[in-house]
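Case 621 in the screening queue. Each case pairs one protein sequence with one candidate compound; here the compound is adenosine-5'-triphosphate. For every case the pipeline is the same: read the inputs, emit a complex structure as tokens, and attach any notable structural observations.

Predict complex for case 621.
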Amino acid sequence: MSEAQRHRVVPGAPLRRSGLRFLKRRRTVLARLAGWSLVESGQTFLFGFALAHALDDGFLRGSPVVGAAWLAAAAVCVGAGAYGTARVYGAVADLVEPLRDTLVRKVVTRGLYAPDGAAVSRLTHQVEIARDTFAGLVLVSRSFVFVTAGALVGLCSLAPVLLLLVVPPLVLGLALFAGALRPMARRQETFLAADEAIATETGTAVGGLRDITAAGAERTVAAAAGERFDAELRASRALARWSVSRVLALGISGRLPIVLLLLAAPWLLGRGVTPGALVGALAYLTQSLLPALQSLMHGLGTAGTRLGVVLRRLTAEPATGAAGAGSHRTPRDGYAVELTGVTFAYGPHADPVLRGLDLTVPAGGHLAVVGPSGIGKSTLAALVAGMLEPGSGEVRRPATADRVLVPQEAYVFSGTVRENLAYLCPGGRVPDADLLAAAAEIGAGALLARLGGPDATLAPAELSAGERQLLALVRAYLARAPLIVLDEATCHLDPEAEARAERAFAARPGGTLIVVAHRISSALRADRVLVMDGTHVRTGRHGELLRRSALYRELTGGWAHAEPPAAAPLQPALAARDADGVDAVAGTRLAGDGGHVVAHGPGRQMQDAGDLGDRGALGGQ
Ligand SMILES: Nc1ncnc2c1ncn2[C@@H]1O[C@H](COP(=O)(O)OP(=O)(O)OP(=O)(O)O)[C@@H](O)[C@H]1O
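Case 621 output:
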């Protein structure tokens, strides 16, 4: 599936709007860029002007010293222009780097909600393409504007009549180019999509060569690949046809004025235009205007289209119906998450991490997931949050906007505290009062004050891992998503801070909380605990599990009573197995459900419990 198919392509208008917003917010940088460009373009103006005066006032009048002085003045201006160019690059960097940050943020966010194999590639490759292309476009279009202005002012100062020969073809050629830009962009986009389709098709074929040969499918695969190549050929021909218009536009706007100037030279000389002015005008046209037009038309025609395509893809929403967000059924009324017969393995030949797992979490529930290291807790969290899709079975989860996963590694980016915290809020905005209240609830009030409040700028590298986690927790809290999944998201906090944050999430009215526990105290706070041990899953209340699950007793440090040390970190991998009432079959099974969560193995009828409390295992055991 190509990128274009995998993601809903955003029409051009929203992209343009966000582009304009991006530029509006950077008015100061743009002003600086314009200022240095003006310095740089001074040399354009002086180049033809000084040449004309060097001839008319100097060399043609037999005063070589005057002529040389004019040329020297032009040379000084070249030095000033070079200084301006150097500063221009600095300003361009200030414009381009924030774009890169914005795109990385978008891609990372989308990667969290709808990851696919190309997410990393988009991040590293396409963001770099976007940044470089954007920088190139800024340089080229800015240079065109200032060089053209410099040349036209120069022509006017030499003899206003010269503009009659230059401006009409220039405008006509630019209009032709502007008209062809959109159809050309569409052809370019089709070409890129066809190119990608070839890469995908051949990549798949190469990866499955053995299977193709074994199945005798060589002809079929070759025919499919052939179709892709034909499609690319058609796309490249269409693109080539439209590229002719670019050559035509360049000819009219850049080369026709030179021809007109030469043809009209006798007439111009007869109307008082000096030979020096003619030479100066020729210099403007050949040395400034034509190269600037060439760069502009090449830059906008190719790089501009490329930038448009890359930006649309980077900012596109995942397509409904594709793998990832959007293609799922939401849970039935009263439930936050429902897993039915879920099997998941990392790769086609790997052993499943989860096999036939059934699990329901009611809306408003608070579930803690415990188990030895590497048993599949994070995998379960990722399946619940929609970061992974099951190999078989079904996960019913809330829509993308209604669920938030907070991973162990907290993501904090350069920007203000407010930008970081409001990041998951609609429009990236939240009233300060809400922001401060959320921070206080989570226990990040002191941190916020120490950082300097919502407007302070964050330097992520200077924050400790715990501070980053606190910020990520506040961000998740502010998102007001009904389902929050904390995957060891508090592991760098001390037990008290962890307890405060978890309680804040659990106390949200109607909010569902799933916590992959780092310390056993997280299990004590939950309504229900899910114990994973690879072959079995047990759920129940803490006290009940202490009685019924040897593994749980091991994990809680061997405490047989209902109150183990609250802050004890969970023990690492254990070989313990539940001894009571467990199937020998490798598969998850219901054991000791207490009501809010149901987990059982394949072949069992799904049972959704009311609160059975200590009445023990559900029927069917
Ligand atoms: N991206 C991956 N590719 C391949 N295998 C993976 C991947 N992520 C996890 N695994 C494997 O899947 C199994 C379950 O991993 P998971 O991270 O879900 O366990 P966990 O219980 O959360 O462990 P921990 O408590 O150490 O975080 C482990 O054997 C792990 O090595």
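Case 621 observations:
- Residues 335-411+481-615 form a domain with the Rossmann fold fold (CATH 3.40.50.300).
- The chain is about 60% helix and 10% strand.
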